[in-house]
Amino acid sequence: MEPDRLNSPTTFEMPLEVMGHELQFSQDPNSKHLGTTVWDASLVFAKFLERNCRKGRFSPAKLKGKRVIELGAGCGVSGIGMALLGCDVIVTDQKEVLPLLQRNVERNISRIMQKNPDSFGSIKVAELQWGDESHIKQLVLHLTTSLALMLFM
Ligand SMILES: C[S@@+](CC[C@H](N)C(=O)[O-])C[C@H]1O[C@@H](n2cnc3c(N)ncnc32)[C@H](O)[C@@H]1O
C-alpha cells in the first residue's frame, strides 16, 4: 500500500478535511467487517460534494432540509458530507457497525457545531439490515416527508 494514501484498513484514525471542517473518523482494523473501514468511494464522494457545493444542485440552497438515507454507511463519511450541506440524513448499517458509526457521527457533529452549526442539517444513526421488514418499517415511521436521495456506495 502506498505510504501517502489517506487511509488503509490498518489505520485507527483517519483525518479528513472537507468543506472547511477538520473531521476525524475512527476505523477498526481489528474487525473483519466491511463497514469498519472508510472506503475510498466515500472519500471521493465527500470531495465531490466539496467541489460542487458552491452552486447548482449540490448547493446548500438546493439541499437544505432534503431527506437523505444512506444504506451501508460504514464510518459515516458520505452521510456527514450531505448533512454538512443542510440535508436531514439517516445513516444506516448492520448492527455490528453501529457503535463505530454512532461514535463517528457524535464526535464529528461536536467538531462541526463548534465551528459553523448554521449550515448543518441533521444526522441520525439507524439499524438497517437489507431486506429486514421490521427495520424498514421502523425507518418508514421516521420519514415524515419523502426522500430526496438514497446513497449507496
Ligand atoms: C463497501 S462498504 C462501504 C461503507 C461506506 N459506505 C464507505 O463508503 O466507506 C459496504 C457497507 O455496506 C454494509 N452492508 C453490507 N451488507 C449489508 C446488509 N446486508 N445490510 C446492511 N448493510 C450492509 C457494510 O456493513 C458496509 O458498511
Automatic annotation (TrEMBL):
> Which Pfam family, giving just one, matches this sequence?
Methyltransf_16
Q: Supply the source organism's classification.
A: Eukaryota, Viridiplantae, Streptophyta, Embryophyta, Tracheophyta
Do you know which InterPro entries this protein is assigned to? Methyltransf_16 (IPR019410), SAM-dependent_MTases_sf (IPR029063)
Q: What is this protein called?
A: Methyltransferase small domain-containing protein
Extract the SUPFAM superfamilies matched here.
S-adenosyl-L-methionine-dependent methyltransferases
